Amino acid sequence: GAGVSQSPRYKVAKRGQDVALRCDPISGHVSLFWYQQALGQGPEFLTYFQNEAQLDKSGLPSDRFFAERPEGSVSTLKIQRTQQEDSAVYLCASSLVGLDFSGANVLTFGAGSRLTVL
Amino acid sequence: AQSVAQPEDQVNVAEGNPLTVKCTYSVSGNPYLFWYVQYPNRGLQFLLKYITGDNLVKGSYGFEAEFNKSQTSFHLKKPSALVSDSALYFCAVSLRGGYQKVTFGTGTKLQVIP
Fold first, then answer.
1. How many CB atoms lie within 10 A of CB A11?
2. A77 CA to chain B: closest CA distance, Å?
3. Which chain A residues are within 8 Å of B90, Cβ to Cβ?
4. How many angstroms separate the CA atoms of B34 and B12, rounded?
5. pLDDT confidence of residue A104
6. What is the pLDDT of residues B47-64, one digit of tens each?
7. Which chain A residue lies closest to B109 (C-alpha atoms)?
8. What is the pLDDT of residues A28-79, one digit of tens each?
9. B85 SS3 class
10. Residue A33: enclosing H or E segment and its boundaries?
11. What is the CA radius of gyration of chain B?
């Protein structure tokens, strides 16, 4: 597609529910990132994929957070047993080449999925 | 660990005046530096980046930024602000060499007053 697509754009969950957020990166983009952006804050790194390999998951805040990209294209971020502190905008970004080549690659972001946990 | 500081939560400037949005960084190595802009209900959009070479980097929409290694700064500038420049601006840093994640600052809201 022309850009990075994320769905749903808005999600309201009751505390304790599981949620799944989808990211459709630009076709052919090797690198895919998930970021969490709390209200009034900058994006905080969650995890990084190069194709289907999850190379860095150091930013995932707890074992309730899980991300996958099984075929190296679409990615899903899953949050189990949601808590109020999980309320945030979850941003997905992709980049054409893998960061093995250069940390200077430009990221293309999706519009984000806003999660509200009641 | 790498980090970015944006000391101003908000910057107000009159339309037509020059604008500066400040950014300082901390890394243990040579950085790559970026500016991204975020409009309401939109994803972050790339403005410009510094890789190497000329310390003055020119980007989209007339924005530029100056890399200052001694002051570890990468301030965003524009000679003449437009009302349409009003948005949230994020500075970001990455390290050179292999896989390096991109770390963002907390953002600065730019308000251009007509």
1. 18
2. 17
3. 42-43
4. 22
5. 67
6. 999 988 889 999 989 999
7. A40
8. 898 999 999 998 889 999 999 999 999 999 999 999 999 999 999 999 999 9
9. helix
10. strand A31-37
11. 14
Residue type at B111 in one-letter notation = Q
Q: Quick one: average pLDDT of B38-46?
A: 88
Closest by CA position to B3, among listed A36, A45, A103: A45
Question: Rounded to an integer, what distance in angstroms lies between the CA atom of residue A57 and that of residue B1?
Answer: 16
Return the C-alpha torsion angle A94, A99, A101, A102, nearest 10: 90
- With an 8 Å Cβ cutoff, is B10 touching chain A? no
Half-sphere exposure of residue A7, counting CA atoms within 13 Å on the CB side? Answer: 3
- How confident is the prediction for chain A on average, in pLDDT? 92
How far is it, in rounded angstroms, from Cα B106 to Cα A33?
18
Residue given tokens 């304790």 in the structure block: A16
CA A82, CA A16: separation in Å to the nearest integer? 5
Mean pLDDT for all residues in chain B: 92
Interface test with chain A among B99, B103, B106, by most A beta carbons within 10 Å:
B99
One-letter amino acid of A99: L
Could you give phi then psi for residue B83, rounded to 5 degrees? -55, -35
The C-alpha atoms of residue B36 and residue B50 are separated, in whole angstroms, by 12
Q: Residues with Cβ < 8 Å from B40, sequence gap 6 or more?
A: none
